[in-house]
Recover the amino acids of this structure.
């Protein structure tokens, strides 16, 4: 499933609470401390009035299991079970166990019930995740029957998994012949997690982050790789896995979480009666897994890490350096909160101390991957550094680091910057999302995992008050923290990373040595057993599964109509305005769509860069630092992005647009629109050094994104070959754009580029092609007046006869593209022409793609071939896409893609399978939508309730024959395009004309 990164921020759910002993929940049930409910004793109750919720801590009397319930009037209910898992080796044990528990259980013995439930549920989130010191299994759904269906599957999976050796070999690692049916073919190491982690180790930034964690917290579980090192994973045995589960997946080591408006007593009764009532407590497990604080060093340490060369980055700018220090115990929630604020003051935005000192001189391209405040581990730590460095600059960066710390202690911080951070906290507290309960889980689990006071951790307003009191009593309080945690902290790590020319060769050599060693220990009988096990696993993978044991919703459980969204249409200063009244909790949301189809092609190519920098260059009356300070004072940020939006009614029709996006507290609406006014009337592109800094950041960020999102880039590359709209998208956001930004970042004189951006601003920053949207509470007339004032101020007269323009399809003789990059795994995609959203075949094609993903591509590409993920989808542009992610076998995957039509024709589709595919589609259609996003489909995509209802009806009415018809009509099309991102492969182009781009040559 998913390994957690350090990026999760425990303060993402900012809530304030008042401690009391007795409360009534939204279900009108009274809970009191000491009360026993269905085998659980209530330990603590606390209402959090800012969010109209009540938090309850409970403990199961017999087993000692922990339980946290958040009672809130929110229909998106959440459940999770977590275990503290603290591995001692880098063999990936907890990660592989997380995968294997979901491969079948005592009550649900079919293979992979987790993936099968994806098509039998209306869950809007299902996953399992491994962090460095815990593993958890969360889901979200609005349907109560679905909630208990998923609870039963999840809980039986973690407490009663089958843990078959064959599942361990599929998900973890195994020795198996390259061709399972051919005993003479070479034996390889295979496995889903094994290949997943090979993919992780293809990413220099992932390598850097993992090693930084290992080196700064070396003494305990953080000193090893919980996800698994590919060189160590093959040391794990099936018996190790079973023993670890038996010991640590115990109720005494469990933490249960529920959130939403479903009845808590029913949860507790279900859990107690089904899984816990006969369990006994074993307190020694928590003692055994407890993570102690890292012993503080008496002197600083250094480390160096090797990585592969990155062809998307200049050869002389591929090194990184980070300096980190150990900070607070995360169970000290007040101190950790204050240090999080300190981190933001030091790093975030152009006024931050380290940003000024390290980023603006353009020594490197961006902050290093390890930069930031990490509060996911028992001891938090802070790191800062640069990537895109030349090795010769290492000493300079260290010197700047020391000088910056000393200057901070001497000069302190600007009170306006402190106030702006506290404003952002207040705004985030009011900003409503559709997954609040899940984010709250992410935020509390690290503290809870180490037995911290999780209810206290939610009381952010109280922490702000305490922080303000400290600042009032001791004006240099923040400087004292800098002195303590940065200047005079001996627990300091300086880590560097540089590429080695033979990195990939050494990796392959080590892999071959490991395999050779494994093979040398095999007898003839062992080799015969490997062959037979391979055949046996393949037989299990091919076997038709009896899924009748699994619970499922039915089509009758779905609502029949789409939700309506209240809308008021206005014309303000002759500009179309869509007003969506919603319960926004005193926040105003503004969006604007500016049509850009009239720009010349050379300017269009620079729109993504324009969007990235236009709000960060400053204005004629304010430099970028002053402007940023005002933005942070009054808003949640000013975002500008490029968007190509497909017509839902006509193929190859699109509107090319720039989107403006911002939100603010209702009281700050005038200030927000004044900031947009300044962008429209005073934006300037004159500060070349600032522009160079932003260009370097963008180029670096794009280059780093490929390994984590390779399947997205591969799909875009493939669809660009068969769809002219996607060809535009590839130019503006695919590998082609990354190559363009790489070239721009190496230009010495950027003034010509800046002149073109200035020209773009002159053409589009007006009312000529603009339409606007406001999402506000019913009576917020101030927001409407603020928008009207803004429109009255800016230039232009609305004149847009047609938002959409048609693009002619161009014939492309090249059918296959291979982008050679130094990864250990591959990303594959195949694209075929489809139809537009309103076409009668769109619904059956969408159902077919969902059906094919679960019944064909998942078992073939993931289970058999070992890719981490695979699937099929139908895009709004009318492109059919098949893809694989972190794939060790691209040849076999493309064969699977090519065989899709034959598979459908030879597969006997059942009505149950058809309905499962429909359910999976409605998960996406009926997922919870935050108030700020309601109306987006209409405003951006011109999809009114009528067209969405027609689409809903069409999906409901899809028949089995419809799937067969569209499979033969569209999946047999000889007009296709393939894309492969990965290492050089001499076999991949057999029989086909491939266009190979070696990015090292660019």
């Amino acid at each position: 499933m998913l390994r957690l990164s350090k990026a999760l921020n425990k303060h993402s759910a900012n809530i304030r609470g008042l401690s009391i002993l007795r409360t009534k929940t939204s279900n009108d049930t009274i809970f009191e401390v000491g009360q026993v409910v269905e085998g659980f004793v209530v330990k603590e109750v606390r209402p959090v009035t800012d969010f109209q919720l009540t938090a309850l801590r409970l403990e199961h009397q017999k087993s000692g299991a922990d339980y946290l319930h958040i009672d809130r009037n929110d229909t998106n209910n959440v459940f999770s079970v977590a275990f503290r898992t603290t591995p001692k080796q880098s063999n990936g044990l907890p990660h592989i166990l997380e995968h294997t528990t979901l491969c079948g259980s005592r009550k649900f013995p079919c293979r992979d019930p987790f993936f099968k439930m994806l098509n039998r549920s209306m869950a809007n989130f299902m996953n399992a995740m491994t962090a460095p010191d815990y593993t958890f299994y969360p889901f979200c759904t609005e349907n109560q029957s679905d909630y208990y269906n998923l609870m039963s599957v999840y809980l039986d999976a973690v407490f009663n998994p089958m843990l078959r050796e064959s599942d361990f070999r599929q998900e973890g690692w195994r020795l198996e012949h390259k061709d399972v049916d051919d005993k003479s073919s070479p034996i390889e190491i295979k496995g889903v997690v094994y290949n997943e982690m090979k993919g992780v180790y293809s990413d220099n930034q992932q390598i850097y982050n993992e090693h930084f964690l290992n080196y700064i917290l070396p003494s305990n579980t953080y000193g090893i790789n919980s996800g698994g090192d590919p060189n160590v994973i093959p040391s794990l045995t099936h018996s190790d896995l079973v023993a670890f589960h038996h010991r640590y997946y115990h109720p005494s080591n469990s933490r249960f979480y529920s959130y939403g408006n479903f009845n808590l007593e029913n949860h507790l009764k279900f859990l107690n009666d089904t899984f816990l009532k006969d369990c006994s407590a074993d307190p020694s497990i928590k003692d055994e897994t407890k993570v102690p604080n890292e012993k503080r060093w008496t002197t600083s340490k250094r480390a160096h890490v090797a990585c592969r060369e990155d062809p998307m980055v200049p050869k002389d700018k591929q090194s990184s350096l980070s300096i980190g220090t150990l900070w607070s115990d995360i169970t000290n929630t007040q101190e950790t909160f204050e240090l999080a604020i300190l981190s933001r003051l030091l790093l975030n935005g152009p006024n931050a101390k380290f940003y000024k000192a390290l980023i603006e001189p353009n020594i490197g391209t961006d902050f290093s991957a390890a930069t930031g405040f990490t509060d996911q581990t028992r001891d938090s730590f802070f790191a800062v550094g640069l990537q895109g460095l030349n090795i010769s600059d290492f000493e300079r960066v260290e010197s700047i680091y020391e000088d910056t710390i000393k200057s901070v202690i001497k000069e302190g911080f600007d009170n306006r910057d402190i106030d702006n951070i506290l404003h952002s906290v207040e705004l985030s507290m009011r900003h409503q999302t559709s997954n609040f309960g899940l984010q709250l889980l992410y935020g509390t689990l690290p503290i809870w995992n180490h037995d911290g006071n999780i209810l206290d951790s939610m009381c952010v307003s109280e922490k702000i008050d305490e922080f303000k009191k400290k600042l009032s009593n001791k004006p240099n309080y923040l400087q004292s923290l800098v002195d303590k945690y940065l200047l005079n902290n001996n627990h300091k790590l300086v880590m560097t990373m540089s590429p080695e020319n033979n990195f990939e060769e050494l990796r392959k050599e080590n892999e071959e040595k490991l395999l050779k060693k494994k093979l040398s220990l095999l007898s003839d009988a062992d080799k015969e057993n490997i062959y037979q096990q391979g055949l046996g696993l393949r037989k299990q993978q091919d076997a038709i599964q009896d899924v009748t044991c699994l619970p499922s919703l039915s089509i009758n459980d779905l609502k029949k109509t789409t939700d309506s969204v209240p809308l008021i249409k206005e014309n303000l200063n002759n500009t179309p305005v869509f007003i969506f009244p919603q319960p926004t909790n005193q926040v105003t949301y503004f969006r604007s769509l500016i049509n850009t189809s009239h720009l010349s092609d050379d300017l269009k190519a620079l729109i993504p860069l324009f969007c990235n920098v236009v709000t960060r260059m400053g204005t004629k009356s304010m430099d970028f630092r002053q402007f940023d300070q005002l933005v942070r004072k009054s808003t949640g940020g000013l975002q500008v992005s490029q968007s190509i939006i497909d017509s839902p009614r006509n193929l190859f029709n699109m509107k090319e647009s720039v989107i403006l996006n911002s939100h603010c507290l209702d009281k700050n609406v005038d200030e927000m629109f004044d900031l947009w006014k300044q962008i429209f009337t005073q934006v300037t592109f004159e500060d070349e050094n600032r522009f160079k800094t932003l260009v370097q950041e963008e180029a670096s960020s794009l280059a780093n994104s490929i390994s984590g999102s390779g399947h997205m880039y591969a799909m875009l590359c493939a669809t660009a070959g068969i769809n002219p709209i996607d060809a535009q998208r590839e130019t503006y956001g695919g590998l082609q754009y990354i190559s363009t930004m790489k070239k721009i970042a190496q230009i010495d004189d950027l003034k010509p580029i800046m002149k073109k951006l200035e020209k773009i601003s002159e053409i589009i920053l007006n009312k000529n092609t603009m339409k606007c949207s406001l999402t506000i509470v019913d009576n917020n007339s101030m927001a409407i007046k603020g928008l009207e004032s803004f429109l009255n101020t800016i230039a232009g007269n609305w004149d847009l006869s047609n938002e959409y323009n048609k693009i002619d399809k161009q014939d492309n003789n090249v059918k296959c593209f291979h982008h050679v990059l130094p990864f250990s795994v591959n990303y594959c995609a195949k694209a075929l022409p489809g139809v537009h959203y309103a076409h009668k075949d769109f619904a059956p094609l969408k159902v077919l793609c969902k059906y094919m993903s679960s019944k064909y591509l998942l078992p073939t590409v993931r289970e058999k071939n070992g890719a981490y993920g695979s699937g099929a989808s139908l895009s709004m542009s009318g492109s059919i896409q098949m893809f694989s992610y972190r794939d060790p076998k691209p040849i076999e995957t493309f064969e699977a893609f090519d065989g899709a039509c034959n598979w459908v024709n030879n597969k006997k589709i059942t009505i149950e399978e058809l309905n499962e595919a429909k359910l999976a589609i409605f998960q996406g259609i009926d997922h919870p939508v935050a108030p700020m996003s309601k109306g987006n489909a209409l405003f951006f995509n011109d999809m009114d309730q009528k067209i969405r209802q027609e689409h809903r009806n069409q999906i409901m009415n899809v028949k089995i024959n419809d799937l067969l018809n569209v499979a033969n009509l569209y999946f047999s099309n000889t007009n296709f395009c393939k894309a492969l991102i990965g290492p050089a492969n001499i076999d991949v182009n057999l029989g086909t004309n491939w266009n190979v781009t070696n990015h090292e040559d660019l």
In short: The radius of gyration is 28 Å.
